[in-house]
Write a structure and sequence with these properties.
This protein is α/β, with parallel strands linked by helices and 158 residues long. It has one domain (6-157): Peptidoglycan recognition protein-like (Lysozyme-like). It has helices at residues 22-32, 93-109, 133-157; strands at residues 6-11, 14-15, 42-44, 50-52, 70-75, 78-79, 117-119. The strands form 2 sheets. Strands 4-3-5-1-7 form a 5-stranded mixed β-sheet, covered by helices on one side. Strands 2-6 form a two-stranded parallel ribbon. It starts with 5 loop residues before the first strand and ends with a helix. Bound molecules: zinc ion (ZN). Residues 10, 62, 120, 128 line the site of zinc ion.
Length: 158
């Protein structure tokens, strides 16, 4: 298994509300770009479904210089509905929840911390994923507080 040291967040740069799936992105990457498989390891659909992308044991193709040791997560969306050149954080509530949960699980599995989560725009002159890493870390930390509180409650109820 390759060594994972980073989790990198992306968007598909598709218009807000347009329902694409991992199969669509795979087709763009394989038939369009000539790659061997979809570039991302996970895709988060509009309804929050987490789809597997490229198998985790293979290097992804999503962030130049970072593919060997990272996991790439892509949410569907990321640009304005009527202006595909305009970056916009279009994540649905379901996509946000799934993103936090997936990041949380991957951080535990690979023994990483929130500092090891990054946005594509930190490594390239791109808007992707249409939000900043500071924003994501704030959201995630808030979500974790609620999540841990909920877990505690669950324990008490048993
Ligand atoms: Zn990206």
């Amino acid at each position: 298994m390759r060594k994972i040291t980073e989790i990198i967040l992306h968007c598909s740069a598709t218009p807000e509300g347009k329902d694409f799936k991992a199969a669509d992105i795979r087709r763009w990457h394989v038939q369009g770009n000539g790659w061997k498989d979809i570039g991302y390891n996970y895709v988060i659909d509009l309804d929050g479904t987490i789809e597997d992308g490229r198998p985790l044991y293979m290097n992804g193709a999503h962030t130049i210089g970072h593919n060997a040791n990272s996991i790439g997560i892509c949410y569907v969306g990321g640009v304005e509905k009527n202006d595909p050149k305009k970056p916009k954080d279009t994540r649905t509530i379901a996509q946000r929840e799934s993103m936090y949960m997936l990041v949380h699980q991957l951080l535990s599995v690979y023994d990483l911390s929130i500092k090891d989560v990054h946005c594509h725009n930190e490594f390239a002159a791109k808007a992707c994923p249409s939000f900043s890493i500071e924003q994501f870390r704030n959201e995630y930390n808030k979500w974790m507080e609620d999540y841990l509180r909920f877990k505690e409650k669950e324990k008490e109820d048993e």
